[in-house]
Every structure is written in C-alpha cells, then in structure tokens.
Amino acid sequence: MKPVLLFLFFLVCEEMAAQATNLVLNPSFETFKPGKDYPACTYGANQVGFTQALQDWGTFTESTPDLVVWKPEGEKECFFPKPHSGEKAVGLITYLPAIDMGRTMDYHEFIQGKLSKPLEKGKEYTFAFYIQLGKDVGEKHIRQLYHMFKNLEVFSLAAGTLGVFFSEGQERYMTLDVAFPQLVWYDPIETKPGEWVLLSKTFKAERPYQYFTIGNFTTDENTATSLPDNAEITQYNLNTKNIQLKKRRVGYYLFDDFWLGEGPPPAPAPSIAEDLKKSKAYTFKNVNFESGKWDLLAGAMPELDGLIDFLKSNAEVNVEIGGHTDNLGNEEANRVLSEKRAESVANYLVSNGVASSRVVAKGYGKRKPVAKNDTETGRLKNRRVECNIR
To answer: How far is CA 212 from CA 108, 111, 178, 302, 373, in A?
Structure first.
C-alpha cells in the first residue's frame, strides 16, 4: 500500500474508532458495585441506596431517583415500563411544585454520571440518551406518597427545561438554581405510552469536563408543561390552605442508554437474533402504530431490519408475525386490526428480500394477553407485535 493511502487508511480508522467510543461509564445502569444489589420494581426510598448500588453513578441529598430493575411478568408484576435495553433504567421526578406540597421549594430529582476521561477543551461532542414519559408511574408514585389523603387529584404531565450540567469534578450538592446547565430541552418532552425517544445535542466543551448531572434546574414556575390549565391549578392551590385538598402535579421521566462521544450514537443493536435463538420468540419494542391504523412508523425500521438480517443469515428459519391487542373495543374489529398490523410487518420483510413462503401473518386480537387488562400498563404490554419461529 502506498504511504499516502496507508496514512489515509489509518486516519479513517482512527476517526471511526473515536466516533464509536462512548465516554459515559455504565451508560445503561446495568452494572452494580461489587456485592451490591437493588430490589426489583420498587420506588427509590433514599439517595443512599441508589448511590451505593450503582457503579459510576450517584445522586444528592433529598433526591430519591428510582433505579428501575425490571423483571418480566411471572417473576413479579412490574408497574415500570420495560427499559430501552437490558433490564435497568432510571426514573426521575422533574416537576413537582412546592405549592402543591405545602413546601418552600419545588421537588426535582437529579442523577450524576461519570465519563471515562475528561473532555478536550474546544472539541465538539454529541450528548444523547433515551427518554420516556412515565405518566402512569408518576401518578402512582404521588398517590403512594399521599395515600392517607382521600379523593386526591393528581395530574401527570409532560415538562420541559430538562438540563445537563457538565462539571470538571464530582458535585456534592445539587438543587434548583445552583448550577447552569450547558444543554437544555426547553419544550415539554412528550412520548407515547411505552415509547422510548432519543434526545441528542451537539456542544463544544469549554473545560475538561468529566462529570455530568441531568435533571430540571429551573423552578416549576418557569417550566413549560403540557397541562392546559396549569395556571388555574396554581391559583387554586395558592388559595387552598388545607394540604389534603391541594391538587398534585408531577412530571416523571425514565432514562436509559446515555451516550457522549465525538460522533452520533450508534444505532441500537436489537436483541432479535439472541432472543430468537434462545426462546424462539421476540416481542418488538418499537413497532408501534397510530391509533386505529396499521401503517409502519419510521421508528420500527431498525428492529425490522435486524429481523431481516437474522432471516437472511438463517435461511432454514420460518417465522410467524402475530398481532395482539388489549381487551378494549369491539372483539372482531381488534382481531382485524391486529391482523392488518401483522401483515404490515410481514409485507415489509418480503419487500426487503425475505421469501413470502417463510413468513406467516396472524391477528389474535385480545385472545393471548401477557398481562392483566385492568391497568394501562397491562394493556400496553398486550398491545404488541411478536415474531415466533415456526
């Protein structure tokens, strides 16, 4: 190889290696400190348990983030949604006004992560993470905290001003207005039930930062929300002296798969091949549809492409695509809808090179639930598309 070409080859390899490196330690919260454990599917009781359990992550006094250790149904009914990857995620309250609780300060939760090395001053980086609005989880949390109050009104909402504060050293104290985040998402962050959304921003490092803290650093008075009558509720609570009669508002989000690097985060590697080889079945995480429709959305493509790769690498494997619904609505209409959604997936596979003889689409409607239909979380689990080896 000529010297110039050799130089360019190594330059490209070096650039690709840099882009592929995630500087966030323990980005998916999967690693515990040696000898530590954490209970599955429970709200965080205090900051000590969170900081002592997780490797390379911490929180602050009076902040009680939820370390979501998700267990599939059968081991324990889990009210948290399934993490974006693995079996762990983190839940944070980012909006809970002081006036709703009879306190002097809004209650927000923060977590602090660590980077494998300091950032280089003046260099451009991308910071990204997956987020999901946990309306049911947030409402359940507030009702659990104030279980002694009868007829409690709780409004779960989407909130904005989510910020990321970078620091050179490890912060020991964090509360509202003590730090000025370099990255902020000002608008309310809304997601569909069960949907993980990737948020990312590119920034230039002003200092050799090695830590970052994420949360809402702004007062709730200055935080945009999705609640139309938010100002009216504030006025009602100001005029209501009885703490039991005040209305509660909460913004609650789940976080997973953090990324900080010199390029964009890599596309998630679906676990389709692993699940199909191990259990002969896979439930799609991001094959979602608009209400009453069966058109595939763009977010479904990475998973479906992963299935296509698996089928092309395993020519002897045939699959059934099964559509499922919850128990709401007309039974026959649900069966037809689930069938059309399964057919949409099957048609995508066939149009991308998978022989039609290897794919069968079936709609089961509500006939094969995997969870109880008496909660929104359970119904969400039942509204799914599955792939099974036949």
So the answer is: 16, 8, 14, 29, 40
| Cα–Cα nearest to 184, from 206, 165, 197 | 165
Residue with tokens 């954490």: 38
One-letter amino acid at 108 equals H
**For 152-186, what is each residue's pLDDT tens digit?**
999 999 999 999 999 999 988 776 667 799 999 99
Helix H segments across 94-134?
98-101
Q: What residues does CATH 2.60.120.260 cover in the chain?
A: 21-261
Helices (H), 95-199: 98-101, 135-145
Nearest to 286 by CA among 82, 14, 42: 82
User: What whole-number distance in Å separates Cα of residue 364 and Cα of residue 320?
Assistant: 12
Residues linked to residue 204 through DSSP beta bridges, in sequence order: 124
Query: Given this model, what pLDDT does residue 5 score?
Result: 45
The per-residue pLDDT for 301 is 77
CATH 2.60.120.260 correct for 21-261: yes
**Is the pLDDT assigned to residue 15 strictly greater than 90?**
no
**Assigned fold of 272-389:** 60s Ribosomal Protein L30; Chain: A; (3.30.1330)
Strands (DSSP E) contained in 56-118 are 57-58, 66-69, 88-95, 111-114
Helical residues (DSSP H) of 123-259, grouped into ranges = 135-145, 230-239
Task: Quick: pLDDT tens for 91-137.
Answer: 999 999 999 999 999 999 999 999 999 999 999 999 999 999 999 99
Cβ–Cβ contacts within 10 Å for residue 273, how many? 17
Q: Residue 296, class by beta-carbon neighbours within 10 Å (0-12 exposed, 13-18 middle, 19+ buried)?
A: middle
Residue 38: CA count within 13 A, CB half-sphere: 32
Query: Is the confidence at residue 17, as pLDDT, over 70?
Result: no
Token pair of 144 as six digits? 């659990």
Please determine, for residue 346, whether its predicted confidence score (pLDDT) is greater than 80.
Answer: yes
H helices, E strands: number in the chain: 9, 15
Q: Is the pLDDT of residue 203 over 50?
A: yes
The answer to whether 222 and 124 are in contact (CB under 8 A) is no
